[in-house]
Amino acid sequence: MSVMSSRPALRWLVPAAAVAVVIGGGAAVGTLAATAEPSLPERSAEQLLVDLQTARLEGLSGTVVQSADLGLPALASLTGGGSGSADLASLISGSNTLRVWYSGPDKARVALMGTLGETDVIRNGKDVWMWESRANKATHTTLSLDDTEQHQLPDGLPTTPQEAADRALAAVSPSTEVTVGRSATIAGRDAYELVLAPRDKTSLVGQIRIAIDATEHVPLRFEVFPKGSDQTAFQVSFTQVNFDRPDDQQFTFNPPPGAKVEEGAKPPATGERQKDSTDTSGFTTVGEGWTTVLVAKAPAGNGEESEQAAGVLQALPKVSGAWGSGHVLTGRLFTVLVTDDGRVLAGLVSPERLYEVAATKAGK
């Protein structure tokens, strides 16, 4: 069984984030985890890809440092609580420390450590808990045992090197050049490096680098570099890792006395999710590979949420052209254009590329 199919439990560990179109993106923290380059037997890019896809992982625990410098404007609603916050939205900016445990597809846990508390997401069989220590609040969700897909949080930035690598490898196609980089020692373990680079140089992504454990063949570090930069826009890396299966107690959660406990909405069955996605997604794609542009209708909001969205939008730069007018959010790896006539265009491309698409029939 491949590592990507044998580790689906990590997929529901993805925190919600404001930018779902980014494969990954941060300031380098490699010096925390990597030392001198080790001497390893030569392996080709094809062999490393096979290693990743055939690796078996029974258990894992460790400490992860995640860092993001996506170039977002200084808006609290976009950058979350910032470095040191235990808010999951803080993963889109600054540096964060997480503890992770994995013991099979139905037992996993991630804890985002903040200076004033922590947020835990725990999967144990059909039970999923989210615990926010600062608010003394726990949310419980019960999964359907006959649901063939794993429960997952809304897509956002990855919290482990494995999940980041899974996303990147899923995008490997003729549009991607795959090579072998320099070996490294990460979290005390020797690792090979796989380098993915867009062949289309108009993408804002320069390179993705995946450090792969030389023995266990699982990712230890994942980095994304913007085009023309040697500073990462996103990195997630183990600083300590153990491949023994964690004790079952790590996945048992009992709300502490006085905690506010809420029952979350039950995830819909697989068929219902597919139907909803088909009926309501309403987005189209223009182009292919690394320069694909997503085009969708702006989501309808109401009440306080709508007011907050409007406030963020008005704070972004105003732009106009033959395509119309609107506001643009530009990051180091991506651009999002929200037009005044209710369209949203996004991609790992420059604003000019979005303006071109917005002016075409496909972008309307």
From TrEMBL:
<dbReference type="InterPro" id="IPR029046">
    <property type="entry name" value="LolA/LolB/LppX"/>
</dbReference>
<dbReference type="Pfam" id="PF03888">
    <property type="entry name" value="MucB_RseB"/>
</dbReference>
<dbReference type="InterPro" id="IPR052944">
    <property type="entry name" value="Sporulation_related"/>
</dbReference>
<feature type="domain" description="MucB/RseB N-terminal">
    <location>
        <begin position="118"/>
        <end position="246"/>
    </location>
</feature>
<feature type="region of interest" description="Disordered">
    <location>
        <begin position="245"/>
        <end position="285"/>
    </location>
</feature>
<dbReference type="InterPro" id="IPR033434">
    <property type="entry name" value="MucB/RseB_N"/>
</dbReference>
<dbReference type="InterPro" id="IPR004564">
    <property type="entry name" value="OM_lipoprot_carrier_LolA-like"/>
</dbReference>
<protein>
    <recommendedName>
        <fullName>MucB/RseB N-terminal domain-containing protein</fullName>
    </recommendedName>
</protein>
